[in-house]
Amino acid sequence: MKGENYMNLEFPSKSANEAFARAAVACFAAQLDPTLDELGDIKTAVSEAVTNCIVHAYPDELGPVILKARILPDNVLDLVVKDRGRGIENIEQARTPMFTTGGDDRSGMGITIMESFMTEFHLSSTPGKGTTVHMKRKIVRRGGKK
Questions:
Q1: What residues act catalytically?
Q2: Residue 116 — very low, low, confident or very high, per pLDDT cuts 50/70/90?
């Protein structure tokens, strides 16, 4: 995995690990000196991606969630959240705000939130094989730092 720095994590799709993923990415992203707003957006996007793995990819069992992060040139945080779960049958439908297969307690806004908080967003999925969310966030350099 090329980049200035990187990390790879794998953990089971337990709800407690959503907070772990948020914290791990926040600590990793801190080296880019993000603002609190930028950091909040990144943590929220990671939270949504991991929660989707927990709720949708593995609704009846535990499975692996893979989280990769790397620092790219020009102060870009590159994130991948991947599962090997049930996959998404219809990606366009899944990207529709308010659409959910997770029941009445889900808002259906996870993908919309990830897309709006990140500089780049890509979603790929194969039914029965899993889903990959690839997100990038450019962190604005402040104070003349290089």
A1: 48, 52, 106
A2: confident
